[in-house]
Amino acid sequence: QVHLVESGGGSVQSGGSLRLSCAASGYAYSRYHMGWFRQGSGKEREGVAAIDNGGATTYADSVKGRFTISLDNAKNTLSLQMNSLKPEDTAMYYCAAAQGTPSPWYSLLNKRSYNYWGQGTQVTVSS
């Protein structure tokens, strides 16, 4: 059973930074593609950043240049460094994972590319 647990969320003022972590158990990260998603109040869950099995990264336009996704295979930990945070970044952030070759029809920023999800960690950015 794959288990993902996010941590690192909290409240921060505009322009501040947070680093989210996702600890995985039940498998090795190197065998999976991973991603970070977020869901604001009353909104659909959207992809924020993703990293494939070869280490290639993808970012949503809204966070590109501000957020950085990385993983530590030895520690089975996925991270999301978030800088220059804005109020519109306020959301519940989720870690996601999937094994095997991603669907050719969906990008890694599409929730349909994943079948394992963490419980989420709240990020709140105030003006």
Describe this structure in words.
By secondary structure, the protein is an all-beta fold. Helix content is 0%, strand content 50%. It has no helices and 11 strands. The strands form 2 sheets. Strands 2, 4, 5, 6, 9, 10 and 11 form a 7-stranded mixed sheet that branches. A 4-stranded antiparallel sheet has the order 1-3-8-7, with no helix packed on it. Strand 4 and strand 5 form a beta hairpin. The chain is globular and about 40 Å long. The N and C termini lie far apart (40 Å). The model has no long low-confidence stretch (mean pLDDT 92).
- How far apart are the termini? 40 Å
> Which structural class is indicated by helix and strand composition?
mainly beta
Mean pLDDT figure: 92
- The unreliable regions are none
Helix percentage range: under 10%
Number of DSSP strand runs: 11
Task: Explain the layout of strands and helices.
Elements: E1 3-7, E2 10-13, E3 18-25, E4 32-39, E5 46-51, E6 57-59, E7 67-72, E8 77-82, E9 91-99, E10 116-117, E11 121-126
Parallel strand pairs: 2-11
Antiparallel strand pairs: 1-3, 3-8, 4-5, 4-9, 5-6, 7-8, 9-10, 9-11
Q: What is the structure about, briefly put?
A:
This protein has 127 residues and is an all-beta fold. Helix content is 0%, strand content 50%.
Kindly list the characteristics that best describe this protein.
11 strands; 7-stranded mixed beta sheet; 127 residues; 0% helix; globular; mainly beta
